[in-house]
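We now fix the convention by which a protein and its fold are recorded. These numbers are not coordinates but entries in a learned vocabulary of local backbone shapes. A record is reproduced here so that you can trace the correspondence yourselves:
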Amino acid sequence: MIRRIRKEVAARIAACGRVAGMLVLLAGCGGSAAAAAPVASASPLDAYAHQVMRVFGPPGMAVTTVEGGVVSTHGYGVRRLGGAAKVDAHTIFPIGSNTKAFTTAALAILVDEGKLHWDDRVVDKLPGFRMYDAYASSEMTVTDLLVHRSGLGLGEGDLLMFPTTDRTRAELVHAIRYLKPAHSFRADYDYDNVLYVVAGQLVEAVSGQRWEDFVQQHILDPLRMRDTRTSIDARVADQVSLHARNTTAVRGVGPQAVLTTVMTGSVFAPAGALQVSAADMGRWLRLQLDRGRLGDGRRIFSAASAKMLWTPQTLIPISPLPAQVALAQPQFDAYALGFEVQDYRGHKIITHLGGVLGGISAVVIVPEKHAAFAIMLNSEDVGALFAMREHLLDTVLGLPSPDWIGGYKHMFDGIQAGAIAAMHRHGAAMHPQRGPSLPLSAYAGVYRDPWYGTATIRRNRHGTLQISFDRSPGLHGTLQHVQYDTFRTRWAMPDVEDAYVTFALKPDGGIDRMTMKAVSPLADFSWDYQDLRFTPVQAGR
């Protein structure tokens, strides 16, 4: 997932043609060893946050603000649905793609050390790196890796690592050469995750340290971010469980539940694996506001690198938002290095969104006010995230605030209702009595996609077709016929988006290829089934 949420929502609205879809004070962010203070009395923000939680229903939320040099944190709700443990300043949340700014900061440190330059060609620093296109392979720079203009489609290649994989990072980097681009190199913006994994490998190739170790030594330790973990699999006493509304055909509809399927493994870490507390997020935001400088005058990265991290590189197309929330629509939007640069109601902001299965986050920096904030949720309730984000922006900027809660509730209710209606229409149009063309045993075999690898279909002793993604442990299930030569998955792993599986036949009746598409119109873009092109592997090959 590791998603860029606002882009995804806007894309869903465009595609569907409808509106579907500071209680603890910390001193000295850098060198000082500040401890959390006791919880303070309720504030206006607390009242708003409680209203957000009542309307949207996230189990837990943490908010960090930095204003006037003061870092404040708020914790709301519980770490786990049904549990008693409260969210506090040191509860860690996964921050998904807000990890990307830590990866670009790591590269900035290497630039400051003279070991790397932003315009260095990746192939010169990371031997064996290749893209599908020869020109992109030879000309892609370090900056190109980070700004979503590679030519890859939205989320293309995420199934190499999502929700888990038995690959190494080196294997993933090798597989990228087989990802056929959707656009010309540097021609368009499309958000990707896989090239941030390449960036993590670049950190290792240049520094000699694994991405995790480099980030720990050069960023987390100097900032005294003692709660933060570089692994999505890290387990500590004070961390959240992850939640989603996943008991219906459309994710996001229905009751909240604790997830049993979450992202796991180390491969995607440079793109989205950090787990961070509200207290630690304050230290990170203060570093950003102080442009790489610690409180004692030392620097994590230079002023020149700080400027580069916030310099727009790739224009992001803007899709109109519904009337109820149109005030939040930017007039310009561009991607920098691990951050977006856009305007909010005429004011420049630096921002990013992040998500993993069961958790989402937002980071916002307002340079003109020398202020910043972060929001972290242990659920997928994007409406709550957006309402809090806009309310905090209005507060920082001193602007009158409309009913963001009502606006985003209306927007997401519409997204979900539209998705349910679309699935009902699609189901009613199916013809299960037609097909399949071949005996079920003829569909069994090993199928290979150039970039993913193999998927295996077997017929079990009960006559049912079973499918497994061979490089994704746990991703297996049954195939149910729906019409003609199209089946749908029924994954054994909970919380996984099902897909339609369609076989195309040759003139002689043999299977030519197998393609896939997510069943739900609201499936996260990291379920990039549509990018797969499986062909049968002939026996003996």
